[in-house]
């Protein structure tokens, strides 16, 4: 029987555990000997709606009641509830709220899931409002501007803000200083229920694949490919990686950005 010392015996909190990348990650962790506290709207150990402040607090309270944890994986996103609310404010509330409990682990780790959608141009007013913890202002800006109010716009903005938040807090005393590695995994287009709208129409699929080609691995990617990376980052074998946005996207980000970061 294969042994997974970096994962086995650890306790993980996984949001979005009922489907897609969250479900694949939950299955992989359990197969490798971890205890997983799955969190989702339904079909989960803990049911909570991360699009609302009450739901976010409920998740933190319920996890805290269950005792020690070793890793928090903020994967929940999708489209059944508010995109900006869940993908930014829900993710950040989960990570912030569970950080004190996480810090009690001998090897605490945290991973949030972003997206290549964060590379799209974003309304800086909305991003800034997110980073200022002003949820009402962020939503008001979205509602007032039809150009960014659609699902794709809100999703990309939320993920961009999440990237910036992680890059800002990961090296601080509360996170790295407390021994907590905090990273982002940013997938490309992956075959999940949340992305089903892309594949329902051939023209839409072709348009998106042309705009964001994934030359390594193909289009779309598989959830289990992403879960392997999340599993390593959140395990004890990750001893030196924090504050990183790691694109698991078949090369889409490299094709779009090239060497711009290094000029």
Task: Describe this structure as you would to a colleague.
43% of the residues lie in helices and 13% in strands. With 263 residues, the chain is of the alpha/beta class. The chain has a seven-stranded parallel beta sheet with strand order 3-2-1-4-5-6-7, sandwiched between helices. The longest helix is centred in the middle third of the chain and has 20 residues, at 83-102. It starts with 10 loop residues before the first strand and ends in a 6-residue tail after the last helix. 46% of the residues are buried.
Uncertain stretches of 5 or more adjacent residues? none
Radius of gyration: 17 Å
Q: How many strands in all?
A: 7
Instruction: Please report which band the strand proportion falls in: under 5%, 5-15%, 15-25%, 25-35%, 35-45% or over 45%.
Output: 5-15%
Tell me, what's the shape? globular
List keywords for this structure.
single chain; 263 residues; 7-stranded parallel β-sheet; 7 strands
Question: Which secondary structure elements does this structure contain, and how are they paired or packed?
Answer:
Layout (H helix, E strand, L loop, with lengths): L10 E5 L4 H12 L3 E6 L5 E2 L5 H14 L4 E4 L8 H20 L6 E5 L10 H8 L3 H10 L6 H19 L11 E7 L8 H4 L2 H10 L11 H11 L11 E4 L3 H6 L6
Parallel strand pairs: 1-2, 1-4, 2-3, 4-5, 5-6, 6-7
Helix pairs in contact: 1-9, 2-3, 3-6, 4-5, 4-6
Concise synopsis of the structure shown:
With 263 residues, this protein is of the alpha/beta class.
